[in-house]
Amino acid sequence: MIARLDESFQHIHRFSAVASHGLRTPLTVLRGEPEAATQHPKITSELRETLGGALADSRYEMAGEVYQSWPQTARFLQQND
After folding, report:
1. What are the distances in angstroms from CA 65 to CA 13, 29, 61?
2. Mutual orientation of helices 45-55 and 2-38 as an angle, nearest 10°?
3. Where are the alpha helices (DSSP H) in 1-81?
4. What is the pTM for the complete model shown?
5. Distance CA 2, CA 74 (A)
6. Strand (E) positions, the chain?
7. Which sequence spans correspond to the domains of the chain?
8. Interatomic CA distance for residues 47 and 26, integer angstroms
9. Cβ(35)–Cβ(52) below 8 Å
């Protein structure tokens, strides 16, 4: 029974590490490309405003918070097994 629990905790730890790493690039791209586009000299003010509104969307912040919490969760689980 204890061995199965330990295996489950190890599985959660590995999943958390892989998922955290796997999300880093897509989240960076999702945020970075619109940020870079707003700095382009030929962008219209209307498009700059639209992109700025999208970047201010709380979903970007939520995704970032989820990403940030995964390594902490993995460390917590590792310390407490």
Report:
1. 18, 16, 6
2. 160
3. 2-38, 45-55, 58-79
4. 0.46
5. 19
6. none
7. 22-79
8. 22
9. no
Contact criterion met (CB below 8 Å) for 12 and 80: no
How many residues does the structure list for the chain?
81
Return the sign of the alpha-carbon dihedral for residues 41, 63, 15, 10. positive
Q: Is the dihedral of CA 15, 20, 25, 29 positive or negative?
A: positive
Q: What is the pLDDT of residues 10-38, one digit of tens each?
A: 887 788 777 777 777 777 777 788 888 88
Kindly tell me the sign of the dihedral angle through the C-alpha atoms of 27, 17, 19, 2. Answer: negative
CA distance 66 to 62: 6
CB-side neighbour CA atoms (13 Å) of 59 = 3
Residue whose structure tokens are 């940030």: 68
